[in-house]
Description:
Layout: H1 4-24, E1 33-38, H2 40-56, E2 61-64, H3 69-78, E3 84-87, H4 93-97, E4 101-115, E5 122-123, H5 125-133, E6 146-149, H6 155-161, H7 165-176, E7 181-182, H8 186-195, E8 199-204, H9 205-211, E9 215-220, H10 227-231, E10 238-245, H11 251-261, H12 263-270, E11 275-276
Parallel strand pairs: 1-2, 1-3, 5-9, 6-7, 6-8
Antiparallel strand pairs: 3-10, 4-8, 4-9, 4-10, 4-11
Amino acid sequence: xxxxxxxxLPLCCMIxxxxxxxxxxxxxxxxxxxxxxxSGIGLxxxxxxxxxxxxxxxxxxxxxxxxxxxxxxxxALIAGALxxxxxxxxxxxxxxxxxxTLRPFxxxxxxxxxxxxxxxxxxxxPELEKIYSGTTVVWPGGETIRLILxxxxxxxxxxxxxxxPGMDEAVTRARKRPGMIxxxxxxxxxxxxxxxxxxxxxxxxxGVLVSKxxxxxxxxxxxxxxxxxxxxxxxxxxxxxxxxTTSRLSRASEKFIDFIYSxxxxxxxxxxxxxxxAGGKTGR
Length: 284
């Protein structure tokens, strides 16, 4: 027979192990921090998701700074500075080679937006081509049209080019015109449209619906941008939304992504102009 003191040590160890297992078996570990960044519209989409998740999981801290953009966030993710990146474009080969994994999620319309003073509710593709090429330079009533552009390699620029061959040429001409306003991020673009008299630009619908800048969404060829018109193919311009992670993904971060892809998460984003195209838990 072993002494009592010898029996107590394994018993204590067993109790500690049980307590640890109980703690680790909860939904997520209290006190963990999830670091997120990405495109402007991606972060706008995350705001109501984070609010809902934080309410149900008060022990989890979710950090989200000003948008780094898709490419910047993926670089930070690969470097270990982020847990999750929200991207508007697919991975480059070198990003995948460095350990980044793409998770498709959904799409949001790229809406045509104008400043509040612009007296236009709808625009056709030929009219948009003329505005970007510089053939049309004033709005009905005589106010000067002021284009708000995105950088050459920005996904919004590429989406607009794909609207029509004429639009592709018009965007090229717009970039050569003197005095054009070019902004980098989605929030900066919305702010520029909102504060510039006679302005016109493009914005992810989710960003407008969440941040509510002082601008107007107009229809394109008679079709208003929405998740519904995107789903049925009537609205032609769309921005993809992806989640990007690495093998370092924490359990807390994985649980949060599971929530985003869940029925509850989908219902939240569908109310703010996102068409969820991924199927099943975490889109796999």
